[in-house]
Amino acid sequence: MSRIRLSAMAVAALLATASCGLFSTGAPSDMTVDRSGYRYADLSGQDLRLMDLVGRDLTGSNLVESDLRGVDLSGAVLDRASLVDADLTGAVLAGVQAFGVDLSGVLASGVDLSGANLRDATLLYADLRDSSLRETNLDGAFLGGADLRGADLHGASLIVSNLIGADLSGVDLGHATFRGDYVAITGEPSNFFEARQMVATFDGAELGGASLNGLDLRGTSMVRASLRGASLVGAILDGADLTNASLEEADLGAISLNGVNLTGAQLSGALLAETDLNEVRGWKVSLAGVNLAGGRFVLMDFAELDLSGADLSGADLTGTVLNGTDLSGADLSATSSQGADLADANLSNADLSGANFSGALFHDADLTRASVEGTNFAGADLRGAILVGISGQPSYLEGTTLNADAFGELLANSRLDPQLLAGIGYAGEDLRGQDFSGQDLSDQVFYGADLRGVDLTEAILHRVDLRGADLRGAIIIDADFEDALLAKADLRQTTVERSSFFRADLKSADLSGATLRTAMLRKSDMRGVNLAGTALDGVNLISSVLDGLDFSAVEFSNVSLYFTVLPGVDFSGRDLGDIDLRRADLSTAILDRTDLSRASWDEYTVWPPDFEPAAYPPNW
């Protein structure tokens, strides 16, 4: 750093000649220069070590590369002054007023800045090691790349401050403030007056071993920040962005991370016991060997998460998305994992004993040599799952969906009670042409089964699972499918007569070319059903869910849509015959050139805006 050395007497003489124009031309034209010789003075490169600057007004002064080592600036005013690359080693700046000051590149290790006002200051790459920043106002300050190792930030305020790339290794931040309301002070213009995110920014900051216990860091950005070994016990990081952050061996006990983004974050060996991770977002996060015992992970979305060897015992994984996750050797004993998505997950050698996986998805998951003693798999989807060498006896398998291979692997478990298989039924089985007429098949599982040509005449199929089943050509006469699951079932070209599908789930089923005569589908869910070329004769669709269905190629005859909501349904150019539209909601239906000449409706029927049914057929 180049410096011009002048004696104290020379500097004093320089200041004494203020009226002779030896001041910075950077002073505003409408500003009267302070005759004391300090406001807007050009002191760049000067040796000021012997100057008495206590309480002096140096507003707007140019102190670039000046030598201020050991100088006492207590109570001085440095608003908008520039001290770029100045040497402040050992200086005292306690209580200075330095709004908007530029301290970029300063050497200020060990400096006392306690109680100073550095609001909106620039401290780019400043050396502040071991400095005292107790009760210092750093709101809106830019500390990018600053070295704050060993600094004392007790009671400091850093609201809206920017700490991108700053080094805060080992610093105790537990008593600093990083979040809150930010209001511009009258008479003190601020670039942050309209700031909307009232939090500090730690992108790329070095916080290894730092203490952030109990801090409110909601919404904070810590992208690529290093927090290895840091302590964040009880901290609140809801909504924070920790993308690609390093949190290895960090203590995150009892921390709140609701809605946090942990995409690419590294948490190997971190302690997250009793941590709330509700609705966490992330992808390719590493949590290998992490302690998550008793944590809450409800609705967490972690695709391809690395949890190999992790301790998740007793954790709440309800509805969690962990597809493709590496859980090999992990402890998931006694977890609540209802409805969790573990498709393609690696659970080899994992401990699942006593866990509740009811309704969970294990499609193509690897459970090789997993322990399933007392595990609840009721209603779980284990199609394609690898169950080779599993040990222990599950507590429930009722309603579980298996393909032939997985079923065989379950049977190979010598300890398995045959009664546990009663609820599994015929999932994936080839049952073509079978005669089930008159049988009570309630609660049976035919998931993905081949049922082409089967006879279901007068069969009772309450709550039966026919999801994805092939029912083409089946004989369905006087059958009862109340509360049945028929999502994605194939009923193409099938004839259904006098049968009930009350409250049945038919989402995305294929009924193209099918004929339904005198069928009752009241309160059924038909979203996404393919009705191309379907004939509906005497069909009751009262209160059914028909969102967005395409009726453009449907043949109607005596169909009842009484009290039915028809959002976005397209009836364009269709002759609806003697359809019953009483109390139906057609407010968003498409009725372009629709023939309603034989339809019935009442004063409670809701039509699209500006639609007058009386003006339509037979005169359109």
Question: In words, what does this structure look like?
Answer:
This protein is elongated. It has a 5-stranded parallel β-sheet with strand order 3-4-5-6-7, with no helix packed on it. The protein has a two-stranded parallel ribbon with strand order 1-2. The relative contact order is 0.03. The chain has helices at residues 8-16, 404-411; strands at 281-283, 301-303, 475-477, 495-497, 515-517, 535-537, 555-557. Among the domains are: 1-84, no CATH class; 99-161 and 173-202, Pectate Lyase C-like (3 Solenoid). The chain contains 2 helices and 7 strands. By secondary structure, the chain is largely without helices or strands.
How do the helices and strands line up, and which of them pair or pack?
Layout: H1 8-16, E1 281-283, E2 301-303, H2 404-411, E3 475-477, E4 495-497, E5 515-517, E6 535-537, E7 555-557
Summarize the structure.
By secondary structure, the chain is low in regular secondary structure. Among the domains are: 1-84, no CATH class; 99-161 and 173-202, Pectate Lyase C-like (3 Solenoid), CATH 2.160.20.
- Percentage of β-strand residues: under 5%
Q: Nearest-angstrom radius of gyration?
A: 37 Å
Count of DSSP-assigned helices: 2
Distance between the termini: 89 Å
Describe the largest sheet.
5 strands, parallel
SSE order:
HEEHEEEEE
What helical percentage do the residues reach?
under 10%
CATH topology group of the domain at 99-161 and 173-202: Pectate Lyase C-like
Query: In terms of structural class, how would the helical and strand content be classed?
Result: little secondary structure
Can you tell me the CATH class of the domain at 99-161 and 173-202? Mainly Beta
Mean pLDDT: 84
